[in-house]
Amino acid sequence: MAIEQSFLLLKKQLAELNKNPVEGFSAGLLDDEDMYKWEVLIYGPPDTLFEGGFFKAHLIFPKEYPLKPPKMIFQTEIFHPNIAKDGSVCISILHEPGDDKYGYEKASERWLPVHTVETILVSVISMLADPNDESPANVDAAKIWRENPEEFKKRVARCVRKSQDAFE
Amino acid sequence: MAETGDKEKSGTSQVKITVKTPKEKQEVEIDPDATVKELKEQVGKKFSATQEQLCLIFAGKILKDADTLKQHGIKDGLTVHLVIKSANKAHETSAASSSSTSPQTTQQPPNINATPFGLGALGGLPGMGSLGMGSANFMEMQQRMQREVMNNPELLRQTMENPFVQQMMSNPDIMRQLMMSNPQMRELMERNPEITHMLNNPELMRQTLELARNPAMLQELMRSQDRAMSNLESLPGGFNALQRMYRDIQEPMLNAAQEGFSSNPFASLVGSGSSSSIAAQQGQENTEPLPNPWAPGSPAGTSPHSSTTGTSTVTSDTAGGQFGMFNSPGMQSLLQQMAQNPQLMQNMMQAPYTQAMMQSMSANPELANQIISANPLFAANPELRQHMLQALPQLLQQMQNPASQAVMTNPRALTAITQIQQGMQQLYSEAPDLFQGYNPIGMPLIGLGTAASSSTSTTTTSTPATTSSSTDITTNTTTSTTTTTASSTSTTATTPAQGQAGTPGVDLFSNMMAQMVRMMAQGNINQPPEQLYAPQLEQLAAMGFIDRDANIRALQATLGDVNAAIDRLIQNR
User: Fold this and answer.
1) Torsion region of B560: left, alpha or beta (phi above 0 gives left; psi -120 to 50 gives alpha)
2) Residue B135: CB partners within 8 Å, gap ≥ 6?
3) DSSP three-state, residue B303
4) Pick from A49, A146, A157: CB nearest B252
């Protein structure tokens, strides 16, 4: 039953997102046959360092969705304190509710079954604009962000340019 | 739906696709078998953009020109995202953040913005940048002046006690504006929202101002804070907390301050104060008596600036009176540099602000009168005021006269004037009585020199205050205090010059400067709150706060910060 439920839920979300898209990203399936692998394209939020960039990411849902969170992995290179170098996104709402391996997050900040693709991406987009210093996934980026904002700006601008070139 | 029916009958009928940008939404009708290129043509017309600028996104993919709509499964009623690229997007993005944060300083070379408390604070006075203060040479002069006054805490104290400064500091509105217009401060606030919040807290601001207004209290606070901090270190875990605080708050601030300014007074503190001495103390209670930084033989670590040498300079300064200051090497070099740098003078004279001010003053004697009577110094001295009023139009005319402006921009003429001045000074010190009522063209220039130099110099005096507070002090308070003093002094530094100088020329010019700064500072404060906070009010109304009066009150209390106003409104409910 759980498998059925997750499939239907994802299908419904996809249809809804195609009909009434949400600001800042566009979502579709990576492979039309597989409802559990999504491809999203985030465009850099305006008035942030990431403005103008196109960032592709994959969302991989477990069969247990929505009881367990999906994984989100950026395919485009992106320089951000909360995005690891391999592209995986470190954000509290994508952490499973059970284990508190990081030891600082409140249960309410972690994954909840009420989260949808939309809420995840809205969180990620806001994270782009406003990095979370407490749990850096890319330590270099966090260090530069904190200590050398000019350099951080430069590195991000490079990513943005690269991401634009990739689609031209 | 008739349209769907049509489509089934003939393959040529159109589908409706919604195209959406972050700002607007348009519907495009197109053949379902069309390619993306054809769709782009349509979209380009609707959004009046070239095809190269368009980027269509559907289902997480960027649509390529050669693809067809069918390939992507784009059907009737679906929405396609559109991003319109501007030609030099990447460039714009990198420039946007810097230019948006400091619009009025963009005309200055970047290294000037980086001067920590000096020009940053000066540039903080809106319009000061356009006065030609942005030239690199000015930086040099300023640094020289800074060093001069670094050794003179007395001067800072005098400035702080000046009624004009106090009056200004008691107005949180002005202070906030000054701080907000300092690009450095703004950058800091952007990076540290806590500080922004602090600035939006009128109560805290008032306390800080109170503190800044009472130098003795400030000194005492710094002293006790030092001790409190060092005791905190000896608590278990306290050192870590301090270190964290230092890293999270102080370091970004210092970094902001340090950029492009190698002779930063903090540099030594960061090195020695925080690491070695603090670490040495870790784990043991501090029972030593509080070191007295004012004692002649105090350890260098507690008071990096030697106030003892400062006082001796003060005494000689006051003994020499007004010209003691002129004869000081810093002042001389300033005058010399001004003489050597006609560009600076020219910039200053041609700045639209200066011109507009002069015009308005000469066209409106009432205004001038008002300004003069508003100045506490003149209010107390009707005779002086009368004198001022008579001399003012003359001076203004003189300043506006192209001939005199030409003189000011001519280096040789300036050198000559400097020489005349030096002669005058000598004459004045030898025979003061002779000097009464004598108003040569050189004097306004001196006044200018005094005003410019004393404003820059006092700016720096605030730096030792921070220095003595050492690394440990709650940096929030320090910064605001520093900026407070720094920015305010430039307004008022003119007044001490007035007080010392009995010569009308100096009075005239410094008064003019004072008025100018007042005009700049009060620019929009005199507006009614509804007008001043109109955009914020609209925002609040849109959020559902319908009580306009309450909104205005909240905005007034929070000095126009919408977020803080919302907090307040919610709390009051």
Assistant:
1) left
2) B341, B343, B344, B347
3) coil
4) A146
For residue A134, give its domain range. 2-166
Name the residue of chain A whose CA is nearest to B99's CA. Answer: A47
Condensed to tens digits (0 to 9), the pLDDT of residues B357-370 reads 555 555 555 655 66
Tens of pLDDT, residue by residue over B14-52, are: 788 888 876 777 888 888 888 888 888 888 888 877 777
Is residue A154 over pLDDT 80?
Answer: yes
- Tell me the three state secondary structure of residue B33: coil
Measuring CA to CA, which residue among B50, B56, B52 is closest to residue B34? B56
Cα separation, A91 vs A76, whole angstroms:
18
User: What whole-number distance in Å separates Cα of residue B215 and Cα of residue A78?
Assistant: 50
A90 a catalytic residue:
yes
For residues B559 and B533, is the Cβ–Cβ distance under 8 A?
A: no
Report CA-CA distances (Å) from B284 to A100, A153, B280, B288, B522.
36, 43, 9, 11, 52
Distance from CA of B240 to the nearest CA of A (A): 16
Identify the top-confidence range among A120-129, B71-80, B259-268, B274-283.
Answer: A120-129
The answer, as to whether pTM is greater than 0.90, is no
Closest chain A residue to the Cα of B77, Cα to Cα: A19
Tell me the chain B residues in contact with residue A164 when contact means C-beta distances shorter than 8 Å: 85, 89-90
What's the pLDDT at B451? 37
pLDDT, tens only, B80-94: 888 777 654 433 333
Start-to-end CA distance of chain A, whole Å, equals 44
Per annotation, catalytic residue among A35, A40, A90, A144: A90
Q: How many domains does chain A have?
A: 1
DSSP β-ladder status, A34-43 and A54-60: antiparallel
The residue type found at A69 is: P
CATH code, domain with A146: 3.10.110.10
Mean pLDDT of the A42-70 span: 87
Highest mean pLDDT among B134-138, B157-161, B288-292: B157-161
Residue among A47, A157, A167 minimizing CB distance to B55 = A167
Contact B4, B15 (CB under 8 A): no
